[in-house]
Specification:
This protein has about 140 residues and is mostly helical. Helices cover about 60% and strands about 0% of the residues. The chain has six helices and no strands.
Length: about 140
């Protein structure tokens, strides 16, 4: 259903269902509006990176619109905005990497604090067999 709405928006515009009175107050969205995702304009949105992963950021609260991106790329102000948007994206990604590294480190600490359960004889034999195979292949 969402895909169909997006297709209609693309073909007929986002204001397709507005009455004449509502259209008077309607303002067309522009690429430099605060509601538009600057990361998407310059490259990619980091919210799309980890979809369905443990560190999923969820849906981006800002607007991703291909027409707005094309408008941005054709804009005479494009070259002035790209460095700023790219720097913001890089800063966000660096913070994300820092947070994920810290999460992995915390997970390793928690894992090291869990007492190791002794291996059953069967599992110990399988592990020994796998180590032998690894030594032969390496």
């Amino acid at each position: 259903m969402e895909a169909q709405g997006a297709l209609l928006d693309e073909l007929m515009g986002k204001d397709r269902n507005l009455t004449k009175e509502e259209k008077k107050g309607y303002r067309e969205m522009k690429w430099d509006d605060k509601e538009v995702c600057a990361y998407y304009m310059v490259s990619f949105c980091s919210h799309d990176l980890f979809a369905n992963a443990d560190c999923d950021l969820g849906k981006c609260p800002k607007i991703h619109d291909l027409k707005l991106k094309e408008s941005f790329e054709k804009s005479p102000r494009h070259d002035a905005y790209v460095p700023r948007f790219a720097a913001e994206l890089a800063q966000f990604c660096e913070k994300l990497v820092y947070d994920l590294d810290r999460s992995v480190k915390d997970g390793k600490v928690r894992l090291s604090q869990v007492p190791a359960s002794p291996l059953s004889v069967e599992k110990a034999e399988k592990l020994s067999l796998l180590e032998d195979i690894k030594e032969k292949n390496c």
